[in-house]
């Protein structure tokens, strides 16, 4: 009986063995690529966090700079800013900050492009393991056109349902 269990392999056994070797090679390749990506991600994140976007408005009378998160971090007005109305300044500020945020987002996309291209070449988990989920697709977000602030989420604590300003203030 022992001889039957350890006897020569059949053609089907060889095909299974070759398939297993291919799966092993794919898994090793994916793990090596993952290690390479992980080693570069920290540097990319550091570089991304250092990004800034700058935009001008009203014939360069207004200059704004945003950080990597799109948050306004610097505003400069030219000496002749007083030639503009408050409404013109407000509209120009909004437009300039949105442009600067779009600029920093474009820079971040360019910075991340090589990493995303490398990731796209890697086999998916489901390609290696049958039935494994694919985690590559991000969940869709509702679009926001930036024309007005998103609706505030109601605060659940009833103690804060009224005005924050009291007559004693």
UniProtKB/TrEMBL annotation:
Q: Which Pfam families match?
A: YbaB_DNA_bd
The answer to whether UniProt assigns keyword DNA-binding to this entry is yes
Matches recorded under InterPro entries: YbaB-like_sf (IPR036894), YbaB/EbfC (IPR004401)
Q: Which GO terms describe its molecular function?
A: DNA binding
Where are the residues of the annotated region Disordered? 131-169
Instruction: Name the keywords, alphabetized.
Output: DNA-binding
Q: What is this protein called?
A: YbaB/EbfC family DNA-binding protein
- From which organism does this entry originate? Nocardia arthritidis
- Species classification: Bacteria, Bacillati, Actinomycetota, Actinomycetes, Mycobacteriales
